[in-house]
UniProtKB/TrEMBL annotation:
One of its GO terms (biological process) is protein O-linked glycosylation via mannose. Keywords: Coiled coil, Glycoprotein, Glycosyltransferase, Golgi apparatus, Manganese, Membrane, Metal-binding, Multifunctional enzyme, Signal, Signal-anchor, Transferase, Transmembrane, Transmembrane helix. It is a single-pass type II membrane protein. It catalyses: 3-O-[beta-D-GlcA-(1->3)-beta-D-Xyl-(1->4)-Rib-ol-P-Rib-ol-P-3-beta-D-GalNAc-(1->3)-beta-D-GlcNAc-(1->4)-(O-6-P-alpha-D-Man)]-Thr-[protein] + UDP-alpha-D-xylose = 3-O-[alpha-D-Xyl-(1->3)-beta-D-GlcA-(1->4)-beta-D-Xyl-(1->4)-Rib-ol-P-Rib-ol-P-3-beta-D-GalNAc-(1->3)-beta-D-GlcNAc-(1->4)-(O-6-P-alpha-D-Man)]-Thr-[protein] + UDP + H(+); 3-O-{(1->[3)-alpha-D-Xyl-(1->3)-beta-D-GlcA-(1->](n)-4)-beta-D-Xyl-(1->4)-Rib-ol-P-Rib-ol-P-3-beta-D-GalNAc-(1->3)-beta-D-GlcNAc-(1->4)-O-6-P-alpha-D-Man}-L-Thr-[protein] + UDP-alpha-D-glucuronate = 3-O-{beta-D-GlcA-(1->[3)-alpha-D-Xyl-(1->3)-beta-D-GlcA-(1->](n)-4)-beta-D-Xyl-(1->4)-Rib-ol-P-Rib-ol-P-3-beta-D-GalNAc-(1->3)-beta-D-GlcNAc-(1->4)-O-6-P-alpha-D-Man}-L-Thr-[protein] + UDP + H(+); 3-O-{beta-D-GlcA-(1->[3)-alpha-D-Xyl-(1->3)-beta-D-GlcA-(1->](n)-4)-beta-D-Xyl-(1->4)-Rib-ol-P-Rib-ol-P-3-beta-D-GalNAc-(1->3)-beta-D-GlcNAc-(1->4)-O-6-P-alpha-D-Man}-L-Thr-[protein] + UDP-alpha-D-xylose = 3-O-{(1->[3)-alpha-D-Xyl-(1->3)-beta-D-GlcA-(1->](n+1)-4)-beta-D-Xyl-(1->4)-Rib-ol-P-Rib-ol-P-3-beta-D-GalNAc-(1->3)-beta-D-GlcNAc-(1->4)-O-6-P-alpha-D-Man}-L-Thr-[protein] + UDP + H(+). This is LARGE xylosyl- and glucuronyltransferase 2. Its cofactor is Mn(2+). One of its GO terms (cellular component) is Golgi membrane. Residues 39-66 form a coiled coil. It comes from the Eukaryota. SUPFAM superfamilies: Nucleotide-diphospho-sugar transferases (SSF53448). Residues 81-102 are annotated as: Disordered. Pathway: Protein modification; protein glycosylation.
Length: 734
C-alpha cells in the first residue's frame, strides 16, 4: 500500500568519500539510497533548483494575476464535469492525504527521457512561420526529448526541413509526411473553412503516422505553450480503457446554434469540442476502425449539412456525439481559445493557470479579449526569442548527435584556439539557423529559358533599399537577410506595411539568423544564390540600383551572347553617387552627362580604383557592342552568369576580398568577362559598415585577412594547378 511520504520518517545525511554531504529525502528506500551516486546527487540538486525556479515563476504570475484582478467563473458542461481532468495538482488526493503530505517529490508526470510525440499539419509560407513560434514555446518549457511529425505541402517541407537541419536542437527528431499523398482521403469533403483541404488532414493521422506510433499530441499551428508539454502528455495516463481522444470543450456558442438566425451547426455534444489541441491514442483508434467510422459519420452528416464550416472539428464533434465514451475532456486551460465571442477568460483565475493559448480567430493577434494584451505579449516573447538559446542539451538525457552536428564538432576540434585568426576560422564553419522563403513566394518560370534572378544580401540597416530596387527591377529576386529573431519580425512588419513589397510575390526572402561576431557575407550570397529558380543570376549588392529596364536588357543579352553554351560572365558597369537624393538617369547618355558634371563617378574611383578599372570605362563610354576584358588583380565586377557558377568562398567574412576571390575563381574556371555596352548600376551612399570600421582600425583584422588570402591562393593552386600561379604572381606585383 502506498502511504505517501510523511513527517514520521526523519531525513538523514549521506556523506561521500570526499567529505561532501547531501541531505537525503526520506522518500528514498534503503535500496534506492545505496544506489545513490554522486551523479544522482547532482541530478537531485538540479531538480531542486528547477523546482525553486518554478515556485518563483508561480509567485510572479500570482502577483501579476492579482494586479489584473481577473474574475473567475464556473465553466463547462455539467454532464462532463466528472470526466474532466482536474489537472496535475491535488485533484486526485483526499484532504487527509494532502494534510499529511510533505514536499517530497511526487512520481514524475512522465518518465525521465520519455519521448513525446507531437503532430502538426502545416502548409504554405505563413503557417511555416507560425510553426516556428509554436516550436519555440514548446522547446522553451520542455524537459523531455521530442519527436515532431509534420504533415506538409512541398513549400512547408522545404522551409521546415532546412530550418530544423540548421537549428540542430539536441533531443529533437523531425519527420515529414507528404500531404499530397493524403489529399485523396479528404478531398471529397466540401469545406468552407479558411484552412482549406489542410484543415481536414488531422482526420488521416491514424493512417499517415507510423503504425508503431501509439499516441500523439496533435496541435494547430496557431498555438502557444505556457508550460511544459510533458504535463499534457501525462494526461494520457488518466484515460479510461475506453477513451481514445482528449479534447477541450469549445469556448464559443458555435455548436449551440444560437449565434444568428437560422444558424445550423454540425451536431455536437453540448458546446462541442475544439480540435486545436488533441490527445490521440492512435493504437486504440486503429483498433476500433477510426478510419471507417469518421468517414461514415461525415458521409451521413453531409447529406444534410452539405459542407463543413469548421473543417475537421465538425466531423470530430459529430463522431463524438455518436460515441461519447471515446472522449476524455481536458480542462479548458489546455486550450484557451482566443476567437471573438468566446468565454475563454473563465478558464483561468491566475496567469499561472494558463497552459496553452490558441489564436483560433482569423483576426489572430487582433482578436477581442479583455486580456488580449497579456496574451499578445506572451506570444511576441516567443516570436522574437533567440532560437539559438534553445539549442541546449537536456540534463540527464543524452541524445545522438546529427551528422551535421558531428561534422561541426570535429571541425571545431581541429581548430587551434591560440591561433590569432581563430574567430575567422570558426565563423567559416558555423552553421547558421536558416528560414527559407520567410514571406509568400510565387515564381512562374519564363517560357524562353532566359530568365534571370537578382541575387543579393543585406542586414536590417539596408531595408530602405528594397522598395527602390523593386521599382528598378521587375524580375525575380533572391535575398538573404542577416537578422536576429526580433529583427526578422521587424522586417516582416515592414514588408507587410509596404505598398511596394506586399504586392511582389517573386521575391524570395531567406532569413539567416545572427550568430557570431562577423557578418558572413559570402555565406549569405551563397544562400541567396542556391535559392534562385532561374537559369541565370545577376550577382549584385543591395546598395546598388540597377538602371531602369535592366531586367529585360539582360534577358536579351543572354540570348545574343549565348550564355547557355558559353562560359561568359556579363559585366554590368558600376557607378556611384555621393548624394542621398539623386535624379536617376534614364539612359546611358544621361548618365554620361552626369558623369561629366561630377554628379556621378565610376565606382570606388576615390578609394579603390583597381577594383573596377579592368571594366575600361573609357571604352564603355563609346561602346555600342559588348567587349571582352581580361582579369586583373583585385578585379571585382558585378556579373550575370549561369546559376551553376562557382559559389563564394565562405572563409571571407566581414570586409575584404569576398568578391575578389569569387571573380578570381570564375577566371580560374575560364569564364570570359564581357562588358555590356548599354547596362549600368549606381551605388547609393550609406554609413560605413561595422566590418569596414574594424578593418580600418584593427591591425589583427588586416593580418588575418592577409593570412586568409594566402591560404586561398594555396587552395586555388591545389585545385587548378599551374594555371593558378598567375594569381599569386599578380598579387606579388601589386
Amino acid at each position: 500500500m502506498d502511504i505517501g511520504c510523511f513527517f514520521l520518517f526523519p531525513s538523514h545525511l549521506l556523506t561521500f568519500a570526499d567529505g561532501r554531504s547531501l541531505l537525503v529525502s526520506p522518500c528514498l528506500s534503503d535500496q534506492q539510497e545505496l544506489r545513490l551516486t554522486e551523479r544522482d546527487a547532482t541530478e537531485l540538486r538540479v531538480q531542486e533548483v528547477e523546482e525553486e525556479n518554478r515556485q518563483l515563476r508561480l509567485q510572479l504570475s500570482q502577483s501579476q494575476a492579482a494586479a489584473a484582478q481577473v474574475q473567475y467563473g464556473s465553466y463547462g458542461n455539467a454532464q462532463w464535469a466528472a470526466s474532466a481532468d482536474p489537472g496535475p495538482e491535488d485533484g486526485e488526493n483526499t484532504a487527509e492525504e494532502r494534510a499529511n503530505r510533505t514536499d517530497c517529490p511526487q512520481r514524475p508526470m512522465v518518465e525521465r527521457c520519455e519521448l513525446i510525440h507531437v503532430a502538426c499539419v502545416c502548409a504554405g509560407h505563413n503557417a511555416s512561420r507560425d510553426v516556428v513560434t509554436l516550436v519555440k514555446s514548446i522547446l522553451f518549457h520542455r524537459r523531455n526529448p521530442l519527436h515532431f511529425h509534420f504533415i506538409t505541402d512541398a513549400v512547408a517541407h522545404q522551409i521546415l526541413s532546412s530550418l530544423f537541419q540548421s537549428w540542430m536542437v539536441p533531443s529533437v527528431q523531425v519527420s515529414f509526411y507528404d500531404a499530397e499523398e493524403l489529399k485523396s482521403n479528404v478531398a471529397w469533403i466540401p469545406n468552407k473553412h479558411y484552412s482549406g483541404i489542410y484543415g481536414l488532414m488531422k482526420l488521416t493521422l491514424t493512417k499517415a503516422l507510423p503504425s508503431n506510433l501509439t499516441k500523439v499530441i496533435v496541435l494547430d499551428t496557431d498555438i502557444t505553450f505556457a508550460t511544459d508539454i510533458a504535463e499534457l502528455w501525462a494526461i494520457f495516463r488518466k484515460f479510461t480503457d475506453k477513451q481514445a481522444i482528449g479534447l477541450v470543450e469549445n469556448q464559443s456558442d458555435w455548436y449551440l446554434g444560437n449565434l444568428w438566425k437560422n444558424h445550423k451547426p454540425w451536431p455536437a455534444l453540448g458546446r462541442g469540442f475544439n480540435t486545436g489541441v488533441i490527445l490521440l491514442l492512435l493504437e486504440r483508434l486503429r483498433r476500433i476502425g477510426w478510419e471507417q467510422m469518421w468517414r461514415l459519420t461525415a458521409e451521413r452528416e453531409l447529406m444534410s449539412m452539405l459542407s463543413t464550416s469548421l473543417a475537421d472539428q465538425d466531423i470530430f464533434n459529430a463522431f463524438i456525439k455518436q460515441n461519447p465514451v471515446l472522449v476524455h475532456q481536458l480542462p479548458c486551460f489546455w486550450n484557451v481559445q482566443l476567437s471573438d465571442h468566446t468565454r475563454s477568460e473563465q478558464c483561468y483565475t491566475e496567469v499561472s493557470d494558463l497552459k496553452v493559448i490558441h489564436w483560433n480567430s482569423p483576426k489572430k493577434l487582433r482578436v477581442k479579449n479583455k486580456h488580449v494584451e497579456f496574451f499578445r505579449n506572451l506570444y511576441l516573447t516567443f516570436l522574437e526569442y533567440d532560437g539559438n538559446l534553445l539549442r541546449r542539451e537536456l540534463f540527464g538525457c543524452p541524445s545522438q548527435p546529427s551528422a551535421d552536428s558531428l561534422r561541426l564538432q570535429n571541425a571545431l576540434e581541429e581548430l587551434d584556439e591560440d591561433d590569432q585568426c581563430y574567430d575567422f576560422r570558426r565563423e567559416r564553419i558555423a552553421l547558421h539557423r536558416l528560414h527559407l522563403y520567410f514571406l509568400q513566394y510565387q515564381y512562374i518560370p519564363a517560357e524562353d529559358d532566359t530568365d534571370v534572378t537578382l541575387v543579393a544580401q543585406l542586414s536590417i540597416d539596408r531595408l530602405q533599399m528594397l522598395e527602390a530596387i523593386c521599382n528598378h527591377w521587375e524580375g525575380p529576386i533572391s535575398l538573404a537577410l542577416y537578422m536576429s529573431d526580433a529583427e526578422a519580425q521587424q522586417f516582416l512588419r515592414y514588408a507587410q506595411a509596404s505598398d511596394v513589397l506586399k504586392h511582389r510575390k517573386n521575391i524570395g526572402y531567406h532569413i539567416v539568423y545572427k550568430e557570431g561576431q562577423f557578418y558572413p557575407v559570402n555565406l549569405l550570397r551563397n544562400i541567396a544564390l542556391r535559392q534562385a529558380n532561374t537559369p541565370y543570376v545577376f550577382l549584385t549588392d543591395v546598395d546598388f540600383l540597377p538602371m531602369y529596364g535592366l531586367y529585360s536588357y539582360l534577358r536579351k543579352s543572354i540570348v545574343q551572347l549565348d550564355l547557355a553554351h558559353t562560359k561568359n560572365a556579363l559585366v554590368v558597369p558600376a557607378f556611384e553617387t555621393l548624394r542621398y537624393r539623386l535624379s536617376f538617369p534614364k539612359s546611358k547618355a544621361e548618365l554620361l552627362s552626369m558623369l561629366d558634371m561630377g554628379t556621378l563617378y565610376t565606382f570606388r574611383y576615390h578609394v579603390w580604383t583597381k577594383g573596377h578599372a579592368p571594366t575600361n570605362y573609357a571604352k564603355w563610354r563609346t561602346a555600342t557592342t559588348a567587349y571582352k576584358v581580361e582579369w586583373e588583380a583585385d578585379f571585382e565586377p558585378y556579373v550575370v552568369v549561369r546559376r551553376d557558377c562557382p559559389e563564394y568562398d565562405q572563409r571571407f567574412v566581414g570586409f575584404g576580398w569576398n568578391k575578389v576571390s569569387h571573380i578570381m575563381e570564375l577566371d580560374a574556371q575560364e569564364y570570359d568577362f564581357v562588358v555590356l555596352p548599354n547596362a549600368f548600376m549606381i551605388h547609393m551612399p550609406h554609413a560605413p559598415s561595422f566590418d569596414i570600421s574594424k578593418f580600418r582600425s584593427s591591425s589583427s583584422y588586416r593580418h588575418c585577412l592577409t593570412t586568409l588570402k594566402e591560404e586561398f591562393h594555396q587552395d586555388l593552386s591545389r585545385k587548378y594547378g599551374a594555371a593558378a600561379l598567375k594569381y599569386l604572381t599578380a598579387e606579388r606585383n601589386i
